[in-house]
Amino acid sequence: MADTQVLIASNRGPVSFSLADDGALSMRRGGGGLVSALAGLRGDILWTCATLSDADRAAARQTTDGRLDVPDIGAVRMLDIPAGTFHRAYNAVANSTLWFVHHMLYDTPNKPHFDARSRRDWQSYEAYNAAFADALAQDAAAGAKVAVQDYHLSLVPTLLRERRPDVKIAHFSHTPWSPPEYYRLLPDDIGRQVLEGILGADHAGFQTDRWADAFLDCCAAVLRAKVDTTARTVSHRGHVTRVGVHGLGVDGPALRDRAAQPDVAARAEVLRERVGDRRLIVRIDRTELSKNIVRGLAAYREMLAKHHEWHGRVVHLAFAYPSRHDLPEYREYTAAVQRMAAEISDEFATGSWDPLILQVNDDYPRSLAAYGMADVLLVNPIRDGMNLVAKEGPALSRRGCALVLSDEAGAATEMSDDAIMVNPYDVSQTAEALHQALLMPADERAERSRRLAATATALPPQRWLAGQLDALG
């Protein structure tokens, strides 16, 4: 792509900071796939994000405008948003409201419950988005391209267009998008505001056709906007937004290089000592409600109860890493995961065999090691925008792994031909799928895994981001 200024806007940035007892700051790289996506881009790169900790705020305040130069990434501007505003925007609105709507997670007889407090929270979400729009408007050169990321920043495109009509704006939704009948759980005005916020973009991107089509349906039903489902355009208030699909894959060479490092080999050795020569069912997830970990464990329990031949011959490595413990629903769900795991061990463990190893402390090298060792990878979300675990596992498999995959994962669109597909709510079906995956002949498992790996790496992050920027012209 031609040299140009590119601005990335996301809640989290490519770096975070920690603060030592003596007041010294240390920086840690992060940013996930977005950092990989920047590789190969030419031009001036500026990543705008929020400060997420006291250490982040301290680092930002040591600069004149919150800008930091980060090698291999470019400039990073960290916005020092008041803690109360951030908490209400991030936890109360983005993660407790928009996330729940997009993933269709509400216990609707009891929630949602929109009241005066919800309106105050929404005002913070508006202020949070306005802070991003102000910073982007200030920093963007004439004709710059701005890539706005995800549901935290749904209002930014329109706010930025009002401030800087000359810039080209893309918005990308990493989550699913709910159909109109569920989307209308949002208060009418808020539902319209979210849609109109995204429609300020020139290009709105989604992970799959299904989520893009649901967005178009919401624009037609909620806004009465002019929608062309063939051309995938939305005309609203004199502006046309093109809607596109950009499936996100993994960077195969970079992932394999990282998995070849000594710390990964050391984790693999420890795991193999614990597991021995038994077959391995692996799952790697954050402890989020959408990931469906409890039903996955229940399926493994049912498989052991029904198929005694696997007793002593299989181990389930379940890595359930902490997520959003500021929210009570997530704390309760983590406790439910731990209870189910304890019940499985109590019911089936013997003196020489523990059927389940549950790990709840985040350890990326250990996850990479488990991918390489897996005979079966279980990915059974209730609903996912894409799900990169389903792609990372086959990409790192050493001898081929069978993939048991939910048909509600965005990755199902690309990977269903070679995965064993399951209804995420059907525990018995999932139990039988695990059994069949363990029985799959080695040559078939290896061939399926090879094709899955090719699919997983066909659209690496660099092509994913470049496609969105190219769509801006």
Q: Which short descriptors sum up this protein?
A:
Rossmann fold, 2 domains, about 45% helix, ten-stranded mixed beta sheet, about 475 residues, alpha/beta, about 20% strand
Q: Total number of helical segments? A: 18
Mean pLDDT: 94
Report the CATH superfamily of the largest domain: Glycogen Phosphorylase B
Strand content: 15-25%
> How many strands appear in the DSSP assignment?
18
The CATH architecture of the largest domain can be given as 3-Layer(aba) Sandwich
**The top level CATH class name of the largest domain:** Alpha Beta
| Major sheet size, sense and barrel closure | 10 strands, mixed
Class of secondary structure makeup: alpha/beta
**Proportion of residues in helical segments:** 40-55%
Poorly predicted ranges? none
The tally of structural domains comes to 2
Oligomer: single chain
Q: Any idea what the shape is?
A: globular
Rg: 23 Å
**CATH topology term of the largest domain:** Rossmann fold
Distance between termini?
10 Å
Adjacency order of strands in the biggest sheet? 5-6-4-1-7-8-9-12-11-10
